[in-house]
Amino acid sequence: MYKYQEIAVELKKVFTSGKYKPGALLPDQETLAKEFATTRMTIRKAIQTLVVEGVVYTKRGAGTFLRKDYDAQDHDMESLIDKPIGATETYSGRKVTSRVLSLNARLPDEEEQRRLIIGPSEPVYLIRRVRYVDNQVYAYERTVMPTKIATITEEVLRGSVYKHLAEESHIHIAGSHRRVYAIKATQDDVDALGAKLNDPVLAIKQVSYTEEGEPFEYSITHFPYETSSVIADVELATGTSGLSQLRHKSRTH
What we know:
- This protein is about 30% helix and about 35% strand.
- With about 250 residues, the chain is an alpha+beta fold.
- The strands form three sheets. It has a seven-stranded antiparallel β-sheet. A two-stranded antiparallel ribbon has the order 1-2. The protein has a two-stranded antiparallel sheet with strand order 10-11.
- α1 (about 5-15) crosses α3.
- The model is unreliable at about 235-250 (pLDDT under 50).
- It is elongated.
């Protein structure tokens, strides 16, 4: 385990011990660097780890805060932490295309405000599209993204959104907090995936973060059960407490 990972484990214990109330401002990186006798860069990477886990969030010029909606049981037992790379990069060398079902801008609902840490008056894109790999249905995506992040058009959606964010808006992705679960196919899945009503569907709910710790995407993606599975590369690492921790690197196909 790298030093920043060890520090992330310790910081998580401190931040979620009850010492800080949800939404509280946490110690700054310089203070934490002195406390752990390390560099600010190491602390920054540790904080980024906790951002991706959904424990804390950062505001430029304001500091790091404990998330108001942090749920220890939820994050520890039912989540996968990974850096999203998108279908285009996952299936590099193969034909990846998209069919845009809708692209609209509107005000966020309460759930979207909570997930993206935005106010009720900050507009978001609502994006619905179907992804194909080699002309075969891959997934049905429903994505909510703050309009302040980047300008999104149907042309962008027909390609790689992540590539557009990196090249046009210089957004660097730190990782995402995911939940993988199964549902019964809805009418949307029938229309988008060609599934049969009430068939099993693999679903992934995801919030993705920039390296600055800002949530930029809240998405729910459905995959047809016949061609989908989740593969997790599991690494066991020993923390400072001597207990083994489970780490996931996952991909869906």
